[in-house]
Structure formats: C-alpha cells, structure tokens
Amino acid sequence: LQIIFPDKENQQSLLEATAHLVASDAEKGEIILTSGAIGSPQILQLSGIGDQAHLKKLGIDIVADRPGVGQNLQDHPACLVSRYSLPGAPKSHSTALRIPGTTTTNPVALTKWLLKGSGPLTSPGCDHGGFIHLSEINSDNTTHADKEPNIQFRFLATKTITPDGMSTISDSYKSQRNHPNGFTIQTICARPKSKQGTVYINSIDPLAKPKVYTPFFTDNQDLDLMVQALKHARYIMDQPSLKKFSGQEEYPGPHIQSDQDLREYAIRTVHTANALVGTCRLGASNDPNAVVDNQLKVIGVNGLRVCDSSIMPTLPGGQTASSTLAIAEKAADILLQSVHS
C-alpha cells in the first residue's frame, strides 16, 4: 500500500493512490489516512514520508523528511491472572460459543443473538473492569480512590489459553477444540513511564510487516506497579463472589508467589493492551518531530491528512477508542470547514 505523489517537486495535490487510497483528481482532492498507529506510519514511509536517512537505505524517493514518522510509539503494557472454573460453574463465554470438541460456532449462541439479542455473542469479551490507584495499598487491600488511577483491570468471562491475552484471541482460540471453562483478569499499567517505541519498515514490500519496538518495563516503576496489580487481581479473585467459582490458577500459576517470581512472569508474558498511539504525532509545524499540524495535515505535503490514534502526542490513561472517536469527530468538523471556506 503506497501513496503516489505525481508532482513531487511542487506538491500541488494528491491525485491517486494504490489499493484503497483513492483521491479525487479535483484541485482540492485529499487523502485521509486512517490506518492506525502501526499502519499509518508504515504507509507514510512506503510513500516517501519519514526519516530521510532510513528511507534512503531502502531506496525510497524522499517526498518529505519527517523523522517523527514511526517514532513516539506508546502502549499500555498488560499481563494477566487466569483460573479454571470449578466443576458445575456456569460456562465461560468462549466455551459457550463453540460446539464441544469442534471449532464450529454453537447454533444456540447464534440463535440467542439473532432472535433475542442475548448470549455470549453480545459481549466483546472484556466489557467489564475498572480503574484504581495502586502505588500504595493499605494493609486491608483498600486502594486510594482520591488519587489518579494508574491501573486498569479487565475482567474476561473466559479462560486464556496462553499468558499472552492477545495470542489467545488472535491465534490460539481459532484452533482450540475443547476450550476450558474459566475466567481472567487482565492487569494494565494505565500510565506507563517507560520510554517510547518505534515503527519502521524493513522493506519496500507493502505486504511485509514493519518492525515494531515496544519497550515495555524499561522503567522499573512500571514493572513494580505490574507486580502489585497481579497481586491485587489475585485478591479480587479470592473474594466470595468469585471464589465460589474459582478453581486452579494456571497463570501465573500457584508456584509463582514471590515478588521476584511475579516480576519474571511479567517480563516473560507482557503484551499489548491494544492502546497503541503516537507514531504520527500532532505538533507545531516548526517541530521537526511532529508529523501532522493542528488541521491533521501531514507537514510538508499537500492534500494528505492523518486521522487516527497515531496522531496522539501522549497516551491517555485509559482505552484509546473514545479518544480516537473524538479525533474523528474533530476531523469531520475540520473537513467541513475547509469545504465551506
């Protein structure tokens, strides 16, 4: 996927692009790039917009030297606690979705969703949870409600297959024929202090995956906080409302108890919380590391805007979907104003 700049010298306007990116050949035609914090910098780099030195190594003609493209990647690090359900407990969502012993969707679940709007298919999987402040935990395990939340808990009515929650969703569950009953709490550092990562292309092949570097736990404060979060997730699971369903713990596992063991488990299993932002960050036009201006226009290029989570300069302390929707609403207002002006 590549944006084609027919008049690279004068940067008049964008006329066309391959695949899904097609702009009008009218004078005011524009492309609105909305491929996210991984896809948008990848497409810009393939199109000649990015760090000049890096793109030249790949033989890509430079359209605009914007070294900030692909930098400033931020994400929430996540780990999890997952337990089997006791015999006789209600079925997990993931178990109820399948015909036992197969990978086929259970027609009962499908019928409930189609006819009644109920059942496991009405849930996105992690639609319950909460935010707390965990830098200090009182002796009775109460937390500080008056302080800014720094941990998010996601409750999933399903047993994870691996300690990587995203792997369970994207890979493992597809081939799992007898998914066990259980439940999971994902622990997320909502305001990580670790340094930013990067997204860089390694090839001019648009189908080749870019190299993504997410430096989770480069700041020990994040790792220490994650250890506390894992301990508190266990505390929540041991409360009467969940304890009556709670069987053996698989992740981290009953053999992992000390803070050092939990630190090693967190380092080994940390994964994305699906909150990637920042790789085409918004900033002033004279900021060499900014990629888009306050009109969402790519700096140094006419007829191209970016409208997705990649423009966020900093990571919100919660899930980024609402912030991304707010960006989209603002972009709609900007585009309407540009048409009427």
UniProtKB/TrEMBL annotation:
GO MF, one annotated term:
flavin adenine dinucleotide binding
UniProt-listed InterPro entries: FAD/NAD-bd_sf, GMC_OxRdtase, GMC_OxRdtase_N, GMC_OxRtase_C
A Pfam family that the UniProt record links to this protein: GMC_oxred_C
Which intervals hold domain Glucose-methanol-choline oxidoreductase N-terminal? 36-50
Q: Which SUPFAM superfamilies match?
A: FAD-linked reductases, C-terminal domain (SSF54373), FAD/NAD(P)-binding domain (SSF51905)
> Which superkingdom?
Eukaryota
Query: Which keywords accompany this UniProt record?
Result: FAD, Flavoprotein
Cofactor(s), by name: FAD
Q: Report the family membership.
A: Belongs to the GMC oxidoreductase family.
PANTHER family for this protein: CHOLINE DEHYDROGENASE, MITOCHONDRIAL, GLUCOSE-METHANOL-CHOLINE GMC OXIDOREDUCTASE
User: Can you say what this protein is called?
Assistant: Glucose-methanol-choline oxidoreductase N-terminal domain-containing protein
Protein's organism = Aureoumbra lagunensis
Q: What is the lineage of its organism?
A: Eukaryota, Sar, Stramenopiles, Ochrophyta, Pelagophyceae
